[in-house]
């Protein structure tokens, strides 16, 4: 009897361990709220800056890739109109700190010239405050090892953005009096619009996106540059696969829990 309980408990632990590092509901709320708060505080102020909202389909794409524990951009984003920010840390995970580290790149960004200081990275910041971005989805995953970076016991955070930012030759937003060019409502210096999905533009993102390279900062807090792509519809098909796997794991979790109880 004791052995059966131990085995069942071990099985339950395996299922629970699969969820280690995943974002909590509170962390998700914090990430979205912090994005909007920071977007409302850009300097110079933005005449048009859209409010971002959480998107589950985008989250599923980020979650599926984060679980692979690869220190590189998601190759599936090649066909998506999405931007991507990545962060990894070996210490206690703090989603707020990760987002703030991305935003603090503004210290090395010159809005007037639309340039980043030499040997610095600003792409996380410009993607985070890209005015036309309306939807985000993020996921975290605790990795025993991280391919291509040789880190152990590290938490990987991935945030994907739609539509993508960092279009070469464009500034992240138009400066001016806050909300002065909002077509609809303004809320805390942010434009709130009914149609959060703008129509696809007849452009080829592969010809306009900025070229970026991964860069390691410090051993305990490192992150890579952003990347953008085209065609949002692939998110749904990819997300369905990840969601079905997650549903199966959840069902197995409850079955094991019932056995233990």
TrEMBL record:
Top-level taxon of origin: Eukaryota
Pfam families: CAP (PF00188)
Gene Ontology, cellular component aspect: extracellular space
InterPro entries: Allrgn_V5/Tpx1_CS (IPR018244), CAP_dom (IPR014044), CAP_sf (IPR035940), CRISP-related (IPR001283)
Protein name: Peptidase inhibitor 16
Organism: Danio rerio
High-level lineage: Eukaryota, Metazoa, Chordata, Craniata, Vertebrata
């Amino acid at each position: 009897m004791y052995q059966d309980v131990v085995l069942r408990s071990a099985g339950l632990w395996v299922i629970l361990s699969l969820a280690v590092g995943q974002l909590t509901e509170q962390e998700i709320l914090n990430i979205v709220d912090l994005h909007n708060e920071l977007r409302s505080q850009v300097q110079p102020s933005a005449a048009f800056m859209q409010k971002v909202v959480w998107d589950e389909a985008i989250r599923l794409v980020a979650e599926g890739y984060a679980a692979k524990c690869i220190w590189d951009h998601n190759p599936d984003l090649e066909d998506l109109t999405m931007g991507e920010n990545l962060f990894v840390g070996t210490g206690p995970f703090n989603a707020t700190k990760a987002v703030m580290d991305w935003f603090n790149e503004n210290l090395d960004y010159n809005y007037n010239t639309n340039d980043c200081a030499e040997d610095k990275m600003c792409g996380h910041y410009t993607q985070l405050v890209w005015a036309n971005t309306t939807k985000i989805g993020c996921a975290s995953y605790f990795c025993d090892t991280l391919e291509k970076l040789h880190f152990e016991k590290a938490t990987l955070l991935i945030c994907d953005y739609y539509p993508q930012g960092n279009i070469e030759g464009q500034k992240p937003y138009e400066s001016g009096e806050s909300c002065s060019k909002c077509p609809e409502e303004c809320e805390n210096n942010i434009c709130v619009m009914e149609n959060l999905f703008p129509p696809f533009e007849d452009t080829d993102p592969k010809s306009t996106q900025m070229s970026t390279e991964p860069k390691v900062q410090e051993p305990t807090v490192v992150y890579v540059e952003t990347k953008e792509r085209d065609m949002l519809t692939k998110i749904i098909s990819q997300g369905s696969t990840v969601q079905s796997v997650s549903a199966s794991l959840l069902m197995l979790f409850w079955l094991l829990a019932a056995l233990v109880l």
